[in-house]
Amino acid sequence: MLSTVVKRFANAKGEEFTAVNGLDLRIRRGEVVAFLGPNGAGKTTTIDMLLGLTRPDSGSVELFGQPPQQAVRAGLVAAVLQSGGLLPDVTVEATVHMLASLHPDADPEQCMSRAGVSDLRHRKVAECSGGEQQRLRFAIALLSRPDFLVLDEPTAGMDVAARREFWAAVREDAERGMTIMFATHYMEEADQFADRVVMIDRGTVVADGSASSIRAATSGRTVSALLSPDEAAALSASPGVRSCTARGDRHYFDCADSDALLRVLVNETSAAEIEVAPRSLEEAFMAITHQDHSVKEGLR
């Protein structure tokens, strides 16, 4: 899909910088792929190239064996972006039906139902919340019955219930064979809904695999316990303890050797309600995107 892609830009001072640096990415049909990276990592630029909104300086981008612009024109690719593309004074129903006229096989009512906006049909777009507008964009994206759906921060502004309904609809589409790639800052979404997680940093892939494999690839666990501040401070200086964070009466230790810390907690402190947990995907993300290049190579 993307082969050794490079994209450069110039800043306000005319200085050139590389947004995407030799990125390689292949996505299999029917996959749900989370596309993660810190701000400035090259996510949006990569998505823009996939959608044919910008061209790479070198390397190649292909969707279904053709240039992105062709695939988009053919209705094979659709996107839900973070903003824009909606007329504020038009109702939700009129918006969907108007755009459905561009696609001969579109079923606007079904698309509104799948996106959860049927009850908003008489509301003007300007009167919809940010999350409701995202669901409207989702309905529009479904009109062409795409084979590949790109989602850029799709649940921004949605409440918890709307977010769950959205991902249930996306999962149904994936089960029908649609390929889905989504960028998000909600790590729990990537953990729960993605078949595969791709992390990029400084324009290149730094980790690629299932969420569980990426969590496992970053060493260490989190040990937490109810503990006095003095005991927590003493433990923070123990070998293998990277950091200690207090949340109320509970202290959380990021450590390389959880067994050793557990022995100290049980035998030498007044610790209660001790818990041990593997790294979350968010913790793995922070570790990977702050590591040096040689460490990242082992996660690809």
Automatic annotation (TrEMBL):
Q: Which InterPro entries does the entry link to? A: AAA+_ATPase, ABC_transporter-like_ATP-bd, ABC_transporter-like_CS, ABC_transporter_ATP-binding, P-loop_NTPase
- Please give, as recorded in its UniProt entry, the membrane topology of this protein: Peripheral membrane protein
Which GO-annotated molecular functions does the record name? ATP binding
Q: What is its main location?
A: membrane
Q: Where is the signal peptide?
A: none
**Residue ranges annotated for the ABC transporter domain, each copy included:** 4-227
Q: Spell out the subcellular localization from the entry.
A: Cell membrane
* Keywords, ordered alphabetically: Antibiotic resistance, ATP-binding, Nucleotide-binding, Transport
Keyword ATP-binding listed: yes
Q: What is this protein's record name?
A: ABC transporter ATP-binding protein
